[in-house]
Structures are given as structure tokens and as C-alpha cells.
Amino acid sequence: MHLASAARQSYRHGVTVLTLQELAEQTPRDTPWLGLDLGEKTIGVAASDALRMIASPMELIRKTKFTDDANRVLKLMDSRGATGLVIGLPLNMDGTEGPRAQSCRAFARNLQRIREVPVTFQDERLSTTAVERFLIDELDLTRKRRAEVVDRTAAAWILQGALDRLRG
Fold this sequence. Notes:
6 helices, five-stranded mixed β-sheet, Nucleotidyltransferase, domain 5, alpha/beta, hydrolase, EC 3.1.-.-, disordered N terminus, single chain, YqgF/RNaseH-like_dom, ribosome biogenesis, globular
């Protein structure tokens, strides 16, 4: 399923998913958003500025239990005054969804059971690869240091991609 049709069929997956434009229209102006890179063991978190121009890496959450992870995300939203979430959706190269994308949808669905949060998905194909290449080529970080920053930097990459798309 392609991303555009995925947004239109959001109720079928049990979660209200907004398009990027709808997220912008339904969240108060001058409020930041959070970006999430949902991995198997960690959640990379990034935040935008209030004008939604720049995304910055914020935190790495080491996954434990879903409720604890979700509450940490919600606390970060509250502490930043964030009004929306941009979650990376790991599509296959042909644009279809696989098990990892379904896992991201399940996270959003379960999070909305705790609190109604405006959510959109951002295609994250190759985001981690692009971030790792940047960290190696531009910053010359060691493997250990890259491991510490890659997921939250990937979250910033995902969020920045959404912010850039929104501005056209």
C-alpha cells in the first residue's frame, strides 16, 4: 500500500492518521512537533522548533514495555508543548508496507488508546542509511559514537523531511 492510500485508509488500521497538511491544519500554529524513529530496540526522538522550520535530535528511548515507552513519548510532548507526531514509516523500496511498517502503525494505534494525539506518517526509506553515511563521511564518528546518535538523528531526518515537504 502506498503512503497516500495508507492515509486515506487509516480507520481500517484502527488509528486516525492525518495527512501532513491535515496535521498542520489541526494543530495550533507556533507549536512544535515531535518526530519518532521507531526501531526494534529504541525510539529515536526529535523535536521541531515552534515555527516548524528546523528539526533537532532530542533523545533516545530504550524500549522496555509499551506503556512505559508511550508515557515517555507523551511526557516529552508535554515538556516541549508539542502538538503532533510525525512517525517514520519504513516502507519497502517499492512503496508497499511490510512487518516493520505494521509495527509502526500498531505503536501509533496503541499510543492513541492512551491519549488522542494527532499523528502523521513520513516515508522513512533509507533515512538511517543516509544518516549513517553523513555521520561517517561528514563527522567521521566512530562506530560506537554513531550507535549512540543514529536513531535520534534519523528521527530528526524524518521530521525535517516532513517539515520541508510542508513548506513545498
